[in-house]
Amino acid sequence: MAVALILLVGFSWQQSGQKALLALIGVGLGMSLFHAAFGFAGAYRRAIEDRDLSGIAAQIIMLAAAMILFAPVLSNGEVMGRAVGGALAPVSISMAFGAFIFGIGMQMAGGCASGVLFTSGGGSGRMAIVTLFFCLGAFWGSLDLAWWTELPGIGSVSIAEKLGWIQALVLQLGLLALIYGVLKWLGFTNKRPIWGEGLSLSTLLTGPWPLVFSAGMLAILNVATLVVAGHPWSVTWGFTLWGAKLAMLAGWDPMTSGFWSSGFQLNALQNSVFADTTSVMNFGIVAGAMLAAFLSGKLSFHLTLTRSSFLSAVIGGLVLGYGARLAYGCNIGAFFSGVASFSLHGWVWIIAAFSGNYLAIRVMSLIRQKSTA
Predict the structure, then answer these.
(1) What region, left, alpha or beta, does residue 139 occupy, with left being phi > 0 and alpha being psi -120 to 50 degrees?
(2) How far is 333 from 102, CA to CA, in rounded Å?
(3) Residue 300: which residues within 8 A CB-CB, separation 6 or more?
(4) 277-290: string of b/e by CB count within 10 Å (b at 16+)?
(5) Is the bond into 208 cis (omega within 30 degrees of 0)?
(6) pTM for this prediction
């Protein structure tokens, strides 16, 4: 375990001290996700099936904390002379459709972008399969992206630029409070304790962490990413890049793609994955989850698959990747970082993605009922 962490930091350090620091931030993110089992797909499933509010409540706290931390940084536009920018993306039919099918993929695969990373780090062989096909789906989406982006849209919309930073912060905090209040009124309850019983040095290392503590850590580490990298936390660009590099090994020529043949994308293909910020942080998340699992005595590599489980991993991974590419990100880059950056696309993303989750859960429930009838 120590060797893996040293190698990760060492390879990252060869690129720059910044990359090494981002790798360590990734380790912190992986530990935060694993020690609280902080997932998105599971939270939505429990909310829809059991009216369990705990996972969504933790996400609301995480978003509120991130918005409060992001606002002064983004409004200033720089930190210590370094430019910083939020996660803004266009609002369009293709973006909403991508988020919708991403939501379907979350339930088919049994995880989201951050979820497949930290559960893979914890030893899940099935999630490693999901990750592989996530990469292939994201690469596939990149090849089709030109067609999708021609569909109607309204472009990027910064709520903060439209209303002002303070007004936007008050509005979004109010929306989060309203969502929580409506869900409580509808009878949703916290069936999983979100505050826990506090933390000691022992539980800090070995877990479990209260959901609220993990939510706060994710918000703090996201703003740390913003300060160090100049942009918020994202995940799925790394998957897209890994898929393209695998395609190159199979003989694919990037010059045949308008998306990959120039600029940032071509430069990323030509350089080491350790030169890519998102990739380095993704590696850190896996390593952090492995470390957390090891410290808690839960590290166990296992792969037991039925045919249906394998098919859902493959198809779910492909749908996750393709959807993420169309939607300009996932539950992290589009939703968490987008809402924290006061981007309208973050709110549209979660409405579309939650709808996809709801549809998938209901259809899968009907299939199970018919199979047991």
Answers:
(1) alpha
(2) 13
(3) 122, 123, 293
(4) bbbbbbbbbbbbbb
(5) yes
(6) 0.94
- Give the length of the chain: 373
Q: How far apart are the first and last CA of the chain?
A: 47
d(CA 122, CA 90): 35
Are the C-beta atoms of 215 and 57 separated by less than 8 Å? no
Dihedral sign for Cα atoms in the order 18, 24, 30, 33: negative
**pLDDT digit string (tens) for 307-349?**
888 999 999 999 999 999 999 999 999 999 999 999 999 999 9
Query: What confidence tens digit (pLDDT) does each residue in 244-301 have?
Result: 999 999 999 999 999 999 899 999 999 999 999 999 999 999 999 999 999 888 888 8
Q: Locate 219 and state its tokens.
A: 């918000």
Closest by CA to 332, choosing from 90, 117, 71, 76, is 117
On whether the CB atoms of residues 97 and 144 are closer than 8 A, the answer is no
| Phi, psi for 154 (deg, rounded to 5) | -115, 5
Tokens encoding 115:
């979820």
CA distances from 277 to 17, 25, 181, 214, 332 (A): 12, 11, 38, 23, 15
Longest dimension (CA), the chain: 65
Separation of alpha carbons 85 and 88, rounded Å? 8
- Give the Cα separation of 79 and 335 in Å (integer): 23
